[in-house]
Amino acid sequence: MTILRWMSRGLVAAATLASVAGAAVAQEVTLRVHHFLPPMSPAHQGFIEPWANAVMEQSEGRIAVEIYPAMQLGGSPVSLYDQARDGVVDVVWTLAGYTPGRFPISEVFEMPFMAASGEATSRAAWRFYDRHLREEFGDVHIVMLHVHGPGLFHIRGAEVASIDDLDGLTVRAPTRVINRALELLGAEPVGMPVPAVPEAISRGVIDGTVLPWEVTRALRLAELVDSHSAFAGDRGLYTASFVFAMNKDTYAGLPDDLRAVIDANSGIEMAAMMGRAMDRADLPAFDAAVDAGNSIIDLPESERARAEGILQPIIDDWVAAMNDRGLDGAALLDEARTLIAEEVAALADQ
Hints:
About 45% of the residues lie in helices and about 15% in strands. It is α/β, with parallel strands linked by helices. The chain has a 6-stranded mixed β-sheet with strand order 7-6-8-5-9-11, with helices on both faces.
């Protein structure tokens, strides 16, 4: 689907949502939500649109929500956080790592082999945010913070059946942590926002990318690559941190009862909702790769052990950097791991 068709669908969705809000009561507030993925993406369909509908319904039409996917309001994905901070738009959904080094404490969830499922790790990430990250994201109002499910390799051409096969491959990375991980594993990392990935692969600018399964379907990535490689084990190679953030003045300027509507649609259950949406989208994306005839490769435990050893300096350096900030890096790392383990166990008991 072309970007123009993505945009037209997004504009129809925005207009529809606004008309629903105005059906019963004249709206008092219009929230413009801006993000970087197409409207068929799991993030848009599985969280952003349901969130907008819930806010409009619970406000009885007094809040209208207009959603603008695929950067329709201008700028690039790396500018989204500042758009929310500066009031260019009211709400954004974006990747924290698109602004390298700006949110260093939150990078704990991007450490190699930290991530479990999207839901479990997102619940853990919100709990960690509530204890340690409010100041780091203090120039916006955080509605929800989450991560995606475990990321893996998607490669065009030669298959990655061992770490050695990464040698010399150009692979897109989403954040500075993953950029360094790819470099240590022998690849040549290329930083770029995810919307640029399909064209970069099709033009041969990169050999592949690391991504979770869920987003690959919206990008039609299975049609562009030949193989998909993941490490064995119950923790993925990486994940990335996202924020659903509102301009502070927009939030503060709401009447108390409308602010309560936003509060009711914020926090850990919203993080879990996004995590579930991403987890559920993994299977059809996996099936699309199988249907395309692509190779699905499970890197064995021995390769995972090698990778853990190779990537340990990333963890050590993050701990040292936190210590330099006057924090206890090892304790923060252990806490994040414990929170993930607790959420994994809690979900298993349900």
